[in-house]
Amino acid sequence: MKKKRRRYSPELKAKVALAAVREQETVAELSRRYKVHANMIHKWKQQLLDNLSRVFESGPGEGMDSKEREAELLKKIGELTVERDFLSNGLDRSR
User: What is the dihedral of CA 42, 22, 9, 63, to 10 degrees?
Assistant: First the structure.
């Protein structure tokens, strides 16, 4: 019988990787505390260090783009809702 793989949440991975970067405890201690294999901790720590620069890549203006995009999508949702309601009312009348 095969053993199912455990899936770890991104929050747990981040917590364990940060603890490993701090180096206040050994990897073996972290492994015992979080019940995660030591190789996984080394892997998550490396992923954290490799992708850390991405946190600072976005500029201050990028937040506005997402707000504009959100407003555009909400407007489109409203239009589609009105269109759907109009067409469903038309179908009810033809019966």
Answer: -120
Check: CB of residue 36 under 8 Å from CB of residue 20: no
Measured distance CA(60)–CA(81) in Å, rounded: 34
pTM, to two decimals: 0.58
CA distances from 1 to 4, 7, 8, 15, 33 (A): 9, 19, 22, 32, 28
Distance of CA 47 to the CA centre of its chain: 15
Q: pLDDT of 2-56, one tens digit each?
A: 888 889 999 999 999 999 999 999 999 999 999 999 999 999 999 999 998 888 8
Domain boundary assignment for the chain: 8-53, 65-95
The one-letter amino acid code at 72 reads E
